[in-house]
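Forum: Protein Structure Q&A
Topic: Joint prediction for protein chains with partners

I've read a bunch of threads here and the consensus seems to be that you should model interacting components together rather than docking separate models afterwards. I'd like to see that in practice. Below is the full input, 363 residues plus whatever partners are listed. Could one of the regulars post the assembled result?
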Amino acid sequence: MKINGNGSHNELRFIDLFCGIGGFRFAFEKAGCKCVFSSDWNEKAQETYAANFGEKPHGDIHTVAVADIPEHDILCAGFPCQPFSIAGVSKKLSLGKAHGFEDKEQGNLFFTLAEIIEVHQPAAFVLENVKNLRSHDQGRTFRVIHDTLTKALGYTVYYKIIDAQTVVPQHRERIFLVGFKESRGFEFPEFPAEGPKLESILETDVPEKYTLTDHLWNYLQAYAAKHKAAGNGFGFGLVTGKDTTRTLSARYYKDGSEILISQGPRKNPRRLTPRECARLMGYPKSFKIPVSDTQAYKQFGNSVVVPVVERIAKAVAATLQRQSDYRPELVLAENDKANAEAAKRIAKPVSYFKTKKRRKASA
Ligand SMILES: C[S@@+](CC[C@H](N)C(=O)[O-])C[C@H]1O[C@@H](n2cnc3c(N)ncnc32)[C@H](O)[C@@H]1O
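Posted by a regular:
Agreed with the consensus. Here's the joint model:
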């Protein structure tokens, strides 16, 4: 890490693993960090990434020698979530396949990450995954991940489930794990109390091809009615501009059923356009979409919500740029004490280090 003697930094360098279309990259660049390596094996995602960042990511992470990955301060990874998601697990179980870490194709990508962390010892990492990573296999998967990062690799880890609906009009809960090599007083950023509504991202002039055919709309209504009668919650998600949507999934291209935009009683509802999906995920207007609608839906459904990661990126960069012995709770306690003393007109500034000594002495 480029830390100066006084603890301040130059530009922080990050790597963008399982980068998809670059949600992490937008966020960390906005926080003033510099990307030094990216990897994703999906050719269509590489195309979108290259159109937006002028650089094609490396392919399969297993084909890159860990030592060849450039030095970096922050490792970012929204590692593939399929083995950890409830849908993925139940589908795999029904097909008699293994899940979680037993899934040799996907689950062990976490250990690939762990190896990169072990070799490169970044000052920090930010990992993202689906919410139910926390509860998968009765909490065992998460415990293995947490123990690996803390006990085996020695990082201080903070984690939080964040719902993006306070920054975009979409209910999307994801777990973020933020780790620091040196213990630092990190706090997850604050989010607004209330988020925007769907009308803020809807386009006005939407081509007819996004309106559902009678055949598909009838099918979705019949399917929903059948499941409702059986007491299940399955069905489509019909919304208006005043609403917040359900979670956009990578399967949205199939029938769009999780987010259907009402067009009034006399017209079938429509899907979101890829541009609206980009906005729903918080991508800027300038974001280029060089691929087909199907690919674009898959890519946005797999992505992170940029403004969520932006806030985390800023908090991580600020934490790294602070001295490593900073302890917010002690500073607060000190402030309280200093205020009390000032009130008593003993205007003597108190230092954190003196308090520390006193605490030691009285222990
Ligand atoms: C959940 S998506 C991450 C999306 C990304 N965070 C974004 O904002 O767009 C996971 C990505 O991992 C990629 N992936 C899966 N296995 C990989 C591997 N072995 N090497 C490189 N990329 C891989 C997939 O192609 C997919 O784009």
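The longest helix spans residues 214-229.
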